[in-house]
Amino acid sequence: MKKMLLSILLCLGIFLGITGCGTETVDEDRQTETQDYGSVERETADVLVAKFNAQVVDNSTLNPASDDYLTTDENAYWYGLITGVYLIVYPIEFTGDLSSDIVDYMVLYVEKNSEFASYTNEYLEYLIKANNPDITTEEVSELIAGAIDSADAGTTVNNGKGIDIGYVEDEETYQYQVIRLYE
Questions:
Q1: 25 assigned to some structural domain
Q2: Helix (H, G, I), strand (E, B) or coil at 136
Q3: What is the pTM of this model?
Q4: Same structural domain, 28 and 85
Q5: Which of 103, 142, 133, 108 minimizes the C-alpha distance to 122?
């Protein structure tokens, strides 16, 4: 009887030990599946356009976004950067006042037949860094490649630093979307 009770207790101990280990592994798996997307501070359209312009002027000879080439259309601010390449700023709520509209996302919109389409990646790097200066040039390249790879699935990419990057194209145009993530 003692042997049988000892065997039952031993089996029960082994069972509980295995079950406990299994639960720990599941919890670890859940933790690694959860991704921190990060967040950025709320900023107005005029501030983010100024940050974009600072990146462009400080690092290249490309044209910055100028109020001379600013139009509003469909509740967004459109800046003509160079023929066939545009910066579009979409606020959370459009008021027509750049200094009060909080940016939801920004788009680099490119006409495929533009002779200046080759400047897209450089402009995009400055746009991404304007939205989060902590993102490195290497990370920018990874985000761009990931956005293109994810386009067919209709998803965006994120590296945990508060912005998502999306890519959309049709027969005549393509666009990169820099989506700001707020808490």
A1: yes
A2: coil
A3: 0.80
A4: no
A5: 108
Q: Is residue 40 part of a domain?
A: no
Q: Same domain, yes or no, for 12 and 65?
A: no
Q: Is residue 39, in this structure, part of any structural domain at all?
A: no
Q: In this structure, are residues 89 and 103 in contact, taking their beta carbons and an 8 Å threshold?
A: yes
What are the start-end ranges of the E strands in the chain? 70-73, 76-82, 85-91, 103-111, 157-158, 163-169, 173-180
Whether 167 and 161 have beta carbons less than 8 Å apart is answered as no
User: What are 95-134's pLDDT values in tens digits?
Assistant: 999 999 999 999 999 999 999 999 999 999 999 999 999 9
Range of the domain at 22: 1-34
Q: Which amino acid is at 86?
A: Y
Within this chain, do residues 87 and 157 fall inside the same structural domain, yes or no? yes
Name the domain count of the chain. Answer: 2
What whole-number distance in Å separates Cα of residue 53 and Cα of residue 77? Answer: 15
Best CA proximity match to 125, nearest among 146, 103, 108, 149? 108
User: pLDDT digits over 122-180, tens only?
Assistant: 999 999 999 999 999 999 999 999 999 999 999 999 999 999 999 999 999 999 999 99
E strands, 128-162, where?
Answer: 157-158
